[in-house]
Amino acid sequence: MSAVPTPAEPVIEVDGIVTRFGKQVVHDGVSFSIGRGELVALIGGSGTGKSVLLREMIGLHPPSAGRVQLLGTDVWRSTVEELTAMRRRFGMMFQDGAMFSSLDVAANVATPILEHARVPADLLQPLVDLRLSLAGLTPDVGGKMPSELSGGMRKRAAIARALALEPEVLFLDEPTSGLDPITARAFDHLLQFLCRDLGITVLIVTHDLDTLLTIAERIIVLGNGKVVADGSIDEVTAVDDPWIKAYFSVRAMLGDAAVKTDGGQRAGGRHGA
Amino acid sequence: MQTDILEPAVQACRVELGTTSAKLHIAGDWRLAELSRLSDALAATALPSLGQRAVDIDGSALTSIDTAAALLLLNRLASAGAELASLSLSGFDDRHRRIVELVRERMEPPGARKPVRRRGAFAAIGAAAIEMANLVLTHLGYLGLTIAALGRLVVSPASLRRRELFAQLGQTCMTAIPVVALVMFLIGVVVAYLLGLQAAQYGANIFVVDGVSLGMVREFSPLLVATIVAGRSGAAFTAQLGTMKLTEEIDAIRTLGLPADQVLIVPRVLALCVALPLLVFVGDVLGLAGAAMVCALMLDITPSTFIDRVQDALAARHYLIGLAKAPVFALFVAVIGCSMGLTVSRDTRSIGINTTSTVVQSIVIVILLDAFFAILLQELDL
Hints:
Structural class of chain B: alpha/beta
Number of helices of chain B: 13
Oligomer: heterodimer
Largest interface: A-B, 26 and 32 residues
Strand content of chain A: 15-25%
Radius of gyration of chain A: 19 Å
Shape of chain B: elongated
Strand order of the largest sheet of chain B: 1-2-3-4
Strand content of chain B: 5-15%
Number of strands of chain B: 4
Order of helices and strands of chain A: EEEHEEHEHHHEHEHEEHHH
Structural class of chain A: alpha/beta
Distance between the termini of chain B: 101 Å
Largest sheet of chain B: 4 strands, mixed
């Protein structure tokens, strides 16, 4: 077990992914690699196949061609046993949480623990409480059913479940969609905390510009079936692509408004972050 | 000591008890996968006799630690009486220290949790009874709502949603014909065959026609077709409306100023009330056809003799009673289906629960109504 994080060690390698639905080509040779401990955002316009790519990376949807290497396992060329072993090492948060509606939140979080780990009986409850607390929930939420939770709480509960088995990689599909800006920012900080303090590699599929600007260390932009840009926020905004220009110009407009109203403090602060 | 660490069976923890202080050495991989082994190792140390000593944890030989193992460590220390806030950590790698500190900050103090109160058997029975009563009241409410909506339709027939009605008729009637035809044909075959076996012993072959036609047209066909429709359309109503409620489509209908009962309930109830008698008719014909086939092959009754005998034996009122029961069954099945669909709670699981419940309730109510009709018509000498 190599516990020392070396930036060179790739955790996720996507190599030449091609995805076709009938005649429609969604991905036409998508390649990138993500190192341990990185916090990466995957963006792109509607229909550029962000969610499909995510599903291909975690072994839910087979690509038409190409290779996905996740935690040293070739996702689409490995045995069921290898895949199961690998699945214990990453967590996935689905867009609407995908909490099991017949179980309360605590039982949802306990499910992967009971299934895959041997935990002393008296430690299960404290462990579930700790997971909830890491996701920013109080232990009393554990007794609630998923249907009783608000959108933000459901997403937090989903993260608690994704964290259950101490994952090395965490995938999140639109973690801040449908949340108010304040809750969304709190969520950003949660992700940053998971990445920084627990050393988890985080990959987010998102549309949220604020998430990109505040926490993403690296942004991968999909467009026309390929990776259009890959790098830090400054590197990505420098790329000459109409979609990227349009996407970030929305922010530039808001930024100008902010400069006018509060003397540029917000815009300045954001660049410093 | 150095060679110890490299060995696989490295001693995970060791306690040195002093008079006022204690030192806990932890080593190796402290991870979720090792949790039960680590728990045993901790239990085997002198940890339980810790008492009030100040504890220092030495993590210099630690190769890795995750939050679950850190929780185990702190949980066991707290259970042994150690003051978590005054623990000191020495020799830890920075990352390991951060994780232990994080867990110390975030963990719930042990024993802070209130036990959950469980319901006794009596309370459970009572709760189920109240739930049942509420269910019946809800259905009665929807029945009233439906009848009121149908009444409004009589006053202003233009408010009928024709497109919805025909869509529902297609789904509840046309597509149900094959399964109704098949099932009733087979029932006709089975009933005629079993009756024929008995009747043939007494040379009373021709009376098989009397028995089959009367039983089929008056009882079997309405009852069985209503059961099939309860399983098909009643369940479909609940699933459709339940999904619409979950995706807020019903709220959207209300918000757009459309009358939800006219758009959703009336077309379904009307469609089923029209569809069921038609399906019962299909069932009557196919049931008799099945019986006629058995009669021709087994009992030497030619189809023309069969038809002559049916005309003699089967008074028109039996046939009409069979058909007349159908819309009543349909009304109850449709109202239960709609009511259960509109009362799903806000999770996907309850759609499944309500759909199952619709089928059970519909079949029970159909049989109850049929029994009621049997007694009523007997008393009326029909």
